[in-house]
Design a protein that fits this description.
single chain; 250 residues; mainly alpha
Length: 250
C-alpha cells in the first residue's frame, strides 16, 4: 500500500515539475514581498517603524502567507485529473481513497520546506540572525502546509479547475492575508473581527512560524495543535469526498 502510494506521489511530483513557472512563482513571490516590505520599513523614520514589519515578525508572516499557494497547486492538480478523466482510470488500481489523497499531498511537502528555507535565508540579507531556528521554522511549516494542501485537495475534488482558481487563488489568499496578523495588528481592530481571526487557523500558522524563528518554543505546540485540528478535519473531508466521487463514477 505504501509503495503504491509513493508511486502515485512520484507521478504527481513529475506533473508539478512540468509546471516550472508555477513552482518558481510559489517560491519567488514570498521573496518579492519580503524585499518590498523590508525596503519600505527601512525607508521610514526609526520611530515610525512597525513592529510587525521587524525582520523576525515579517519573515514568519511572509513564510506562512507563502504557503497559501500550495492550496492552488494541489487544487489544480486534482481538478485537472478529474477534468481529463484520469482519476476514473485510477479507480482500477488497488489504492484506497486515503492513498490517493496522500499521493497528492506528499509531493507538495518538499516544496513547502524549500519555500520556507529560501524565504528565511533570503531574510538574512535584511538582518535576520542565522540560527538553528531557521531549520526549526522549516519543520514547523509542514503543519501549515498540510492545512493549505488539504484545503486545496478538498476544493479540487469539489470544484472545476476554473472555480478552484477563484476559490484557492483569490478568496483563500485574501482570507489568509486579512485574518493572519501579517499586515496589521488585529488586536487594534478587536471585536468580532478579532474573534473570527483567532478562531480560524490562519493567524495560528503565522504565530507558530514567528515563535519558531524567535525561539519561543513553548508557544509553538499550542499554535500548531490549532492548525493541525483544522487540517485533519479538512483532510478527512477530502478523503470522504474522494470516496463518494469514486462510488458515483464507477
Amino acid at each position: 500500500m505504501i509503495m503504491k502510494t509513493l508511486a502515485f506521489a512520484s507521478r504527481n511530483a513529475k506533473e508539478l515539475q512540468r509546471d516550472v513557472l508555477t513552482s518558481i512563482f510559489g517560491i519567488a513571490f514570498p521573496i518579492v514581498l519580503l524585499v518590498l516590505l523590508s525596503v519600505i520599513n527601512s525607508s521610514i523614520p526609526k520611530e515610525a517603524h512597525m513592529t510587525l514589519f521587524e525582520i523576525k515578525n515579517l519573515t514568519g508572516g511572509i513564510s506562512a502567507f507563502g504557503l497559501v499557494f500550495l492550496s492552488l497547486f494541489s487544487a489544480l492538480l486534482v481538478s485537472k485529473d478529474r477534468c481529463t478523466a484520469f482519476i476514473i482510470r485510477l479507480y482500477a488500481s488497488p489504492l484506497k481513497p486515503s492513498g490517493y489523497i496522500l499521493g497528492y499531498t506528499v509531493p507538495l511537502i518538499p516544496m513547502a520546506l524549500l519555500q520556507t528555507l529560501v524565504t528565511c535565508l533570503f531574510a538574512l540579507i535584511f538582518g535576520l540572525s542565522f540560527s538553528a531556528n531557521i531549520l526549526l521554522a522549516a519543520v514547523v511549516s509542514i503543519v501549515p502546509a498540510f492545512l493549505y494542501i488539504s484545503i486545496g485537495l478538498l476544493c479540487g475534488m469539489a470544484f472545476s479547475d476554473k472555480m478552484v482558481g477563484i476559490i484557492c487563488g483569490a478568496v483563500l489568499t485574501n482570507l489568509s492575508a486579512w485574518l493572519s496578523n501579517i499586515w496589521f495588528d488585529i488586536s487594534l481592530v478587536g471585536g468580532a473581527f478579532q474573534k473570527i481571526a483567532e478562531f480560524l487557523p490562519f493567524i495560528h500558522c503565522v504565530n507558530a512560524l514567528r515563535a519558531a524563528l524567535e525561539g519561543n518554543y513553548s508557544q509553538i505546540i499550542p499554535e500548531l495543535l490549532w492548525v493541525f485540528g483544522y487540517a485533519a478535519v479538512i483532510f478527512a473531508c477530502a478523503v470522504l469526498l474522494f470516496n463518494r466521487r469514486m462510488k458515483q463514477d464507477k
